[in-house]
Design a protein that fits this description.
single chain, 235 residues, alpha/beta, Rossmann fold, Helicase, Ruva Protein, domain 3, five-stranded parallel β-sheet, 11% strand
């Protein structure tokens, strides 16, 4: 679908960012609120949701999944990673109110940049008036951000605020198995646990390992066993 502005080529949705492959753990209430397919008929969708969490917990994944879902229904959405876009003129935000969904990621990156703080404040007002759904993600709660524009701080506190909690090790095992299953791989619990205990436990890192193992398994026509994982990862 055509968008109001042309974003830098580096801004793209990941194909694997879906609600189906996101293991919610303690974040089930948030995922249920974001995923339109899980919502109860007759219950109005929240117009503004703010989510925050540490690196690797899945905030970006959830925002991109929401965009994919809108796009799959022939709607129009846009994903705005502020850590990339603050290096461009803030006029990029013009016309966003014509969309069904706007997702602003890493809004903390705009803190202390007057041009962008003003532009985001104006965008919030236009989206509210147009009844456009807005999802915002950051590394901390609205009150903990270093936003200097008081009116923008106020706007960020308008909606429902969720902290995205990291998965515990048991949940990471289940998340890795789920992602493997969706790739058509058979990964038992022992293999998943071995991978988690031998590597960096950041979920993004774990999924990159899974991608490497998937490719190696396909080439070698081997199942994912602990000896095979040791061989591929040089562990």
């Amino acid at each position: 679908m055509s968008l109001p502005v042309q974003l830098p080529l580096s801004v793209q949705l990941r194909d694997d960012a879906t609600f189906a492959n996101f293991f919610s753990g303690q974040n089930a209430a948030l995922v249920n609120m974001l995923d339109i397919d899980r919502q109860v008929p007759g219950i109005e969708t929240e117009q503004f949701i703010y989510l925050y969490g540490s690196s690797g917990v899945g905030c970006s994944h959830l925002l991109q999944a929401a965009c994919h879902q809108v796009d799959s229904r022939q709607g129009r959405s846009i994903y705005l990673p502020m850590n990339e876009l603050v290096h461009y003129p803030s006029k990029l935000l013009e016309g966003m109110e014509s969309l069904q969904l706007v997702c602003i990621d890493d809004i903390n990156a705009a803190a202390g940049i007057p041009e962008w703080e003003e532009a985001l404040f104006d965008l919030f007002n236009r989206l509210r008036d147009a009844n456009t759904r807005l999802l915002v993600a950051a590394d901390s709660s609205p009150k903990a951000l270093k936003i200097e524009l008081p009116d923008l701080v106020s706007r960020l506190s308008w909606g429902v605020v969720f902290q995205v909690h990291p998965l515990v090790d048991k949940e990471k095992v289940a998340a890795l198995q789920l992602r493997a299953h969706l790739r058509g791989l058979d990964m038992n619990e022992d293999v998943a646990r071995f991978i988690i205990y031998r590597s960096n436990r950041d979920m993004g890192h774990l999924f990159r390992i899974l991608q490497k193992l998937d490719s190696a398994s396909l080439r070698a026509k081997r199942k994912l066993t602990i000896p095979f994982v040791k061989q591929v990862m040089s562990w």
